[in-house]
Amino acid sequence: MLKAFACHEIANSSPPRSEAAPTQAQAQAHPRQMQHHNPICSVKGTQPSTSSQQPPKQNMGDNAGLSVNGVYPPFDAFAKMAHIKGIEQYETMYKRSLEDPENFWGELARENLDWFRDFDQSVVGTVNKGDVAWFLNGQINVSVNCIDRHVKKHADKVAIIWEADEIGQGREITYTELLEETCRVANAMKHAGVKKGDTVAIYMPMIPEIAFVMLACTRIGAVHSVVFAGFSADALRDRLIDANTHWVFTSDEGKRGGRTLPLKQIVDVAVDGLDFVRNVFVFKRTHNPEVKMNPKIDIDMDDEMKRHRPYCAAEFMNAEDLMFILYTSGSTGAPKGIAHTTAGYLLYAMITCKYTFDLQHDDIYACVADAGWITGHSYIIYGPLANGVTTVMFESTPMYPDHGRYWDLIQRHKVTKFYTAPTAIRALMARGNDKIKEYDLSSLKILGSVGEPINPEAWKWYYEVVGNRQCYIADTYWQTETGGHIGVGLPGATPMKPGSCTKPFFGIDFVITDENGNEIKGNDVEGQLCIRKPWPGMARTVYGNHNRYLLTYMATHKGLYFTGDGCRRDKDGYYFITGRIDDVLCTSGHRIGTAEVENTLVAHNVVAEAAVIGIPHRIKGEGICCFVTLVEGVKPSKDVEKELVQQVRAHIGAFASPDLIVLVPGLPKTRSGKIMRRVLRKISHGEEDSLGDVSTLADPSVVPVLITNTKVALVGKSF
């Protein structure tokens, strides 16, 4: 689940247009190292900033920064300039989006996107049947909408600011340069045999080339499958096999937080023995001569880019053509390849980005997520670029070289809209306020949160300290499957409540149900969150397994899309996400299935059984707690615990590293053999007094041992 409030942008309308031949300037320009020029239409420096006290911002109106009974109204001055200028306008548009989706979305699609061929109908199908399709018979190209049309109007405007791991080593790419580099990659792919409909895997660090590759795929109609570069070789291999991927893009190495990541080495292990992988395209990030190249399948992209023209004609894509696959964890253990299609996804990413962050032409927008997750797809690449704004791509971490990195980035680039995760907010809040005071953050207008629920204390710190009580907090709730925000406040319209994703986005018909799928109407209610009607950004299927798609999202609550989340709707109609209902954890904004971790643990030869649950974590939001029984003859020890942690890190990735391993002689099971995770949750949360009746367990004697061993395992731990 991708959730934000708490877990990852403006184009003028114009008639459909065909591709034009490259200009002489397009043929000669290249991405350049940063120089000092106009901050929007050219290249600017990325040298370390000088410290300065944060000055007061302009007065935003009589109600600026004030809370009335825990509700923070939108700023008066901001509302006057916003796209959505008040709650009345939101309510009118929202009502129409539900009652007349055909014309509501049809008008937005024609006003905001360029089409090769106009569509005949906006939407057909139902959520219940899982046969939804948008913009029938329309033809479009994603890269044209993200690049070409902006080149024609603002050729020298900066499209991407790349903030490298080391301060001062970044660069900027204008829209003209973005077009040229995207076309060179597209031509390199076509030269290697990549065709429309082929799947291309991308396992890359946060460098500009990842955007070039993603956009190049959309230009020629290839389907990209981006795999987060923190996943292990085994996890990457599984995804390559599932999508039958013939081509992989990577780089020699990656950089993050001062560390070097052996990405090419990981890819080599992943593709070993996979005869269907034809080529591995390798960009150079570190230019380490010790990184080995396989002449049989590897292609050096530094050389390859020089061979190809900076122009490639764009494919005419049908609106429902598959655009990308993105794998997300499932409760069954096997990751699901969430499939998004072209026009509906692009429009939804663009419109949610535009309205959530109230994007204006001169904005410097920074989402500090990773392109390996849906946040990076929708809110680093496609949403901002479709809107024609400048988007920041961040390679580093909030703590490198120190915990002022975010604030330094904001000051140097004069960032206006900033989007990060509660995990980072909580970690920075724990460091105190002194560092923030060294920087000028007065350029900020909107602060976003993504990845997981943000607790009210962190929300208030974000609002009061980072935003100086003068920035709107866009608390976004959504998922990989939804394509974009489904619950979020709009800066000029929606009053804010700490901890709430406020109201549904346009077209999103939230329904709260009981465990049996019966709707619970009215306010001040709690239950399971579903969606009644289709929206353009919804995933169309699970790649290669439509039945799994129907069973996961449509079967449990007839006629509704089931989010898998619990939800409370308060007396004012505000929505609060209460957590996952299925066995999926959200740790540091990353979604990971408990079954996937359990299967990895049991694969170790010393493990007999494993049960994984989530535990509260003040930084990550949710930590990973593993209860493990060992095979006969193996004695519990710290060395065994360390081995098991390494097992998970090696087979899934460091982000899934267990926070707590409890070695136990047995697990609490029913007489039918089902593990009672409820008992494990109570014990790990220190709520053993409320375990209830455990006499029905197959072996009740395991409970006191579980309690004792958990307390021992927690000694010295601080979550």
Automatic annotation (TrEMBL):
Cross-referenced InterPro entries: Ac_CoA_lig, ACAS_N, AMP-bd_C, AMP-bd_C_sf, AMP-binding_CS, AMP-dep_synth/lig_dom, ANL_N_sf
Keywords: ATP-binding, Ligase, Nucleotide-binding
EC numbers: 6.2.1.1
Source superkingdom: Eukaryota
Residue stretches making up the Acetyl-coenzyme A synthetase N-terminal domain: 90-146
Phosphoprotein found in the keyword field: no
Example GO biological process: acetyl-CoA biosynthetic process from acetate
Coiled-coil regions, chain positions: none
SUPFAM superfamilies, per database record: Acetyl-CoA synthetase-like
Region described as Disordered: spans on this chain: 9-65
Residue span(s) of domain AMP-dependent synthetase/ligase: 148-539
Family that this chain belongs to: Belongs to the ATP-dependent AMP-binding enzyme family.
Protein name from the UniProt record: Acetyl-coenzyme A synthetase
Record organism: Phytophthora kernoviae
Phylogenetic classification of the source organism: Eukaryota, Sar, Stramenopiles, Oomycota, Peronosporomycetes
